[in-house]
């Protein structure tokens, strides 16, 4: 039986009460089963509620026969509680299934861009309205609200009409809290029916709209969006949340390239696609889009859409991924996995046709040869480095004829580590590496480092050559220093793969276009001579300068970015001038100031002791980042993905976890300015080397203002003087608590803090402008100093 998302009923999540109703027993009986049976399914907990995977529950109930005195009419001696539960399974209405069919396939076509009208509406939603509804530190929750509203509009017309009716009515007082509860609860109900943990109501509860009218305006704007706007929200989420290296999303063009390569390499369309680290669900979404586009081609077989499977340790993006896939109308099952790594527990149970994944990297430049134990057919990876664990895991779950496309750091292809070289040797000698594509740098928001895509094949399809493609010169730089691949870039790589791959793959209605990306097909002997390197740079010389047409287009786009950034800087400059003029008034300068100590203004908490949080507790496989002094930079807490602990340990150390608005100071070590915790850093853990200031609600101080005061050189020097009195720089809780600050009234604090934040935004914009000008200068230099097309043609003729 299928529910409205196209998933089997076993993909749902159930509460204990629902299990009891389906099994025809009391809730107390379920609790007894859970307490006494060691193999009873383990629940997932969220929002104070436990949820059980329905397929696991049904499997357990299938092994429990109903005793004679408990049987219902028509049940025999072989009847199990699983049989009864299936009879009582809640169905879905025809109207709901029709809604899913009606809104399936809402993704853009392969060469399409977003509707300009949608882009303009999203800009309005992300402007001042975002701060009025979400607040300065609630970007993630606000974007979740936008996604939930569009999701309900496209899948639950009845609920969307209730939301609109609540916004438009004037018959009774309207409450922002009530409206957010309505949106959150309805979205959670749909998500739970899809088997996804319901997180939306909790996320939306963190929003604090200043006025109901602002929230109503958000609803009206979302109602005016087209059906393709969901991807615009996802892209904005990535930019605004400033995702860390373990959380950044795979850019949409890269996701589409990987999905297309994996599909083209197979002899038949994949019936199942799996991502063991699905981030925002973009790779699974690209697989669904690619399958739908293939079905739409003339003469293409109407193959069923693939079933999508995924695991993630990140709660924050689970709901977004679930909604994105549901909007595509494809069957899927996403699982939250907060313990261990994918290969430590068998899931999914069956082999899959295609694996697409962008796993977290942890490359350490070391020649250490220590390896871990376990089942590693191509060689045990070194301890503390999973780079060559994920490709092996991907191969282990493939069905015969299957393919895997894995994002890999370039260094994994030619690392000098003996264990990693041995793994590459085994991969090459057993013929499971089909193709490696070198991608440009600066594609990802979390790192400027260039990466490769490894295309792997099931051992039954082993080959004697590896195809290397060099796509490093593709793409153009956009605002913010990010490089973007265009549709034509993706198609060029795919065409080159099709042109240079001998045989196999799907039937081609016509000859593929010639290869346009620098390439090399290297046999095993060539790879042996090159120390089994899988880095395309070691097999392909650096590509020649771009032709004048492509380079000219890139230059035009680069200068267009410069122009846009100049306009943005001009707007920020003007806003700063106006705000500065307002703050020069006597009202601000002559406002009374009161003295207060930090102990009076804040709750001061030192980090956990080394006994509670030891170095051995930090692991690259943890999911909760730990904040050290090195992560306090420019008033912000920066990426701390290199220092993480398990969720279980973090939950035991609840008093040391961080919240938005917390101010983190150095406790021991080189004393520097403090930093503020942002919304996407909720729940991060303090290290022993930092100390936390949490402003009291009734203290009359704003966190942003206090951060500015404590960042002044005289305030930092005050701390340094007290810390220097010890053998090693160290500030105690009591000493920090005695530091005095001057506080004006709250309205003056707000105006000052607003100007300082605006100046920070202005500084960032001018840095982006400088980077864009530098990039445009480099393109112009290439144009003016490289050989002309005619001279290159003459040179090629001479060589031939």
Describe this structure in words.
This protein has 800 residues and is of the alpha/beta class. 42% of the residues lie in helices and 14% in strands. It is built from 29 helices and 25 strands. It has a nine-stranded mixed β-sheet, with helices on both faces. Helix 8 (139-155) runs parallel beside helix 16 (318-327). The longest helix has 40 residues, at 746-785. The radius of gyration is 29 Å and the shape is globular.
Defining traits:
single chain, 800 residues, alpha/beta, 4-stranded antiparallel beta sheet, 25 strands, disordered C terminus
| Strand order within the widest beta sheet | 6-5-4-7-8-10-9-11-14
The assigned structural class equals: alpha/beta
Which of globular, elongated, flat, extended, rod-shaped describes the shape? globular
How far is it from the N-terminal to the C-terminal residue, by CA?
65 Å
Poorly predicted ranges: 1-10, 91-106, 504-510, 542-551, 795-800
Question: For the residues shown, what is the average pLDDT?
Answer: 81
Q: How are the secondary structure elements laid out?
A:
Layout: E1 13-14, H1 16-23, H2 27-36, E2 44-46, E3 49-53, H3 54-62, H4 81-87, H5 94-102, H6 116-125, H7 128-134, H8 139-155, H9 157-168, H10 176-193, H11 200-205, H12 212-223, H13 230-241, H14 252-265, E4 272-275, H15 282-296, E5 307-312, H16 318-327, E6 332-336, E7 352-357, H17 390-396, E8 398-409, H18 418-429, E9 433-438, E10 451-457, E11 465-470, E12 476-477, E13 483-484, H19 487-500, E14 519-523, H20 524-529, H21 548-583, H22 586-589, E15 594-597, H23 598-601, E16 602-606, E17 624-627, E18 632-633, E19 636-637, E20 644-645, H24 647-652, E21 663-666, E22 675-676, E23 685-686, E24 690-695, H25 703-710, H26 713-723, H27 733-737, E25 740-743, H28 746-785, H29 789-799
Parallel strand pairs: 4-5, 4-7, 5-6, 7-8, 9-11, 17-23
Antiparallel strand pairs: 1-3, 2-3, 8-10, 9-10, 11-14, 12-13, 15-25, 16-24, 17-20, 18-19, 21-22, 21-24
Helix pairs in contact: 1-2, 1-4, 3-4, 8-9, 8-10, 8-12, 8-13, 8-16, 9-10, 14-15, 14-19, 21-28
């Amino acid at each position: 039986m299928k529910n409205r998302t196209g998933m089997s009923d076993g993909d749902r999540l159930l509460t204990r009460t629902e299990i009891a109703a389906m099994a025809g027993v009391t809730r107390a009986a379920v609790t007894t089963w859970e307490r006494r049976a060691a193999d009873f399914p383990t629940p997932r907990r969220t929002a104070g509620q436990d949820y059980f995977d329905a397929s696991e529950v049904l499997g357990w109930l299938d092994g429990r026969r109903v005793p004679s005195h408990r049987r219902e009419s028509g049940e025999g001696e072989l009847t199990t509680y699983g049989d009864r539960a299936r009879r009582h399974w809640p169905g879905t209405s025809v109207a709901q299934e029709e809604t899913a069919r009606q809104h399936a396939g809402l993704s853009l076509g392969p060469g399409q861009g977003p509707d300009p009208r949608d882009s303009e509406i999203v800009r309005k939603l992300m402007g001042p309205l975002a701060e009025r509804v979400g607040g300065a530190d609630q970007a993630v929750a606000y974007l979740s609200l936008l996604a939930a509203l569009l999701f309900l509009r496209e899948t639950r017309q009845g609920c969307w009409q209730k939301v609109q009716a609540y916004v438009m009515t004037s018959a009774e007082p309207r409450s922002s809290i009530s409206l957010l509860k309505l949106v959150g609860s309805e979205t959670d109900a749909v998500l739970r029916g899809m088997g996804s943990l319901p997180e939306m109501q909790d996320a939306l509860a963190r929003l604090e709209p200043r006025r109901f009218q602002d929230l109503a305006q958000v609803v009206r704007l979302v109602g005016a969006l087209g059906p393709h706007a969901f991807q615009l929200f996802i892209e904005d989420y990535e930019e605004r949340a400033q995702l860390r290296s373990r959380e950044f999303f795979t850019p949409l063009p890269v996701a589409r390239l990987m999905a297309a390569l994996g599909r083209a390499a197979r002899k038949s369309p994949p019936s199942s696609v799996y991502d063991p680290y699905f981030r925002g669900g973009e790779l699974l979404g690209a697989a669904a889009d690619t399958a739908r586009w293939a079905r739409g081609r003339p003469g293409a077989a109407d193959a069923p859409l693939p079933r999508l499977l995924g695991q993630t340790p990140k709660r924050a993006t689970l709901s977004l991924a679930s909604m994105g896939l549901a909007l595509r109308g494809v069957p899927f099952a996403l699982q939250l996995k907060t313990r261990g790594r994918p290969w430590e527990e068998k899931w999914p149970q069956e082999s899959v046709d295609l694996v697409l994944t962008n796993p977290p990297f942890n490359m350490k430049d070391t020649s250490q040869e220590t390896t871990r134990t376990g089942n590693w057919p191509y060689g045990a990876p070194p301890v503390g480095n999973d780079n060559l664990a994920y490709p092996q895991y991907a191969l282990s779950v493939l069905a015969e004829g299957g393919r895997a496309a894995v994002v890999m750091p370039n260094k994994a292809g030619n690392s000098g580590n003996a264990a990693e070289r041995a793994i590459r040797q085994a991969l090459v000698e057993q013929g499971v590496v089909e193709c490696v594509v070198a991608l440009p740098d600066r594609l990802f928001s979390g790192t400027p480092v260039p990466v490769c895509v490894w295309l792997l094949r099931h051992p039954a399809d082993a080959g004697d050559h590896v195809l290397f493609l060099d796509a490093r010169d593709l793409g153009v730089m956009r605002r913010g220093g990010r490089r973007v691949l265009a549709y034509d870039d993706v198609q060029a790589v795919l065409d080159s793969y099709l042109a240079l791959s001998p045989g196999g793959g799907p039937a081609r209605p016509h000859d593929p276009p010639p290869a346009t990306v620098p390439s090399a097909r290297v046999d095993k002997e060539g790879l042996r001579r090159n120390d089994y390197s899988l880095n395309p740079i070691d097999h392909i010389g650096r590509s020649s300068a771009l032709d004048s047409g492509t380079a000219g287009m890139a230059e035009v786009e680069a200068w267009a970015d410069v122009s846009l950034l100049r306009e943005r800087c001009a707007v920020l400059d003007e806003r700063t001038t106006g705000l500065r003029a307002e703050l020069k008034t006597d009202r601000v300068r002559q406002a009374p100031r009161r003295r207060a100590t930090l102990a009076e203004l804040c709750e001061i908490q030192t980090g956990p002791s080394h006994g509670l949080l030891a170095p051995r507790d930090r692991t690259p496989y943890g999911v909760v980042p730990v904040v050290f002094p090195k992560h306090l930079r420019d008033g912000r807490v920066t990426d701390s993905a290199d220092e993480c602990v398990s969720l279980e340990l973090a939950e035991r150390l609840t008093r040391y976890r961080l919240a938005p608005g917390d101010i983190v100071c150095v406790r021991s070590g080189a004393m520097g300015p403090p930093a503020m915790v942002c919304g996407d850093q909720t729940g991060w853990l303090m290290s022993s080397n930092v100390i936390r200031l949490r402003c009291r609600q009734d203290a009359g101080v704003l966190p942003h203002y206090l951060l500015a005061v404590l960042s002044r050189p005289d305030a930092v020097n005050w701390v340094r003087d007290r810390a220097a009195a010890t053998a090693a720089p160290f500030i105690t809780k009591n000493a920090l608590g005695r530091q005095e600050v001057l506080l004006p009234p709250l309205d003056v604090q707000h105006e000052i803090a607003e100007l300082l934040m605006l100046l920070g935004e202005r500084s960032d914009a001018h840095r982006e402008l400088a980077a864009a000008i530098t990039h445009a200068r480099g393109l112009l230099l290439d144009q003016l100093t490289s050989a002309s097309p005619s001279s290159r043609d003459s040179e090629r003729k001479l060589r031939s």
